[in-house]
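User: Thanks for the earlier help. One more: t-SNARE coiled-coil homology domain-containing protein. Can you show the sequence and predicted structure together?

Assistant: Of course, both are below.
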Amino acid sequence: MASNLHKAASLYGVAAPFRSRDGLSTRAISGTDEIQLRIDPFDFEDEITGLHTQVRRLKHVANEISTEVKYQKDFLEQVQMGIMKAQAGVKNNMRRLNKTIIQSGSNHILHIVMFALVMFLIVYLWSKISRK
């Protein structure tokens, strides 16, 4: 790669690494530090047509993105409404359950403690019997 730069520099003077397009070239004038610049004719119509095509494509992509954003927004709003309804339903059910527990006056905590004690006793006795 370095040899290519050296060859280009020898053909086009010190400005060779700074060439921007094929139509732009430089050559050194013998005996002076000046550079002569020659710009080849350039077809602007083709470039404008190409840019117009790219702009049209970008516009189409932007429209597609806009449509997708609207769809995603509607979907998220529906999901959010569903979540809000589900939260309200859970809240109402918890309220009803708490009322039922308070009204019935059940001793469910006592039942859980008794169950745990009975299970502990069974496991303890089983471990004593299995050692013998």
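User: Great, one quick takeaway?

Assistant: The two ends are 88 Å apart (CA to CA).
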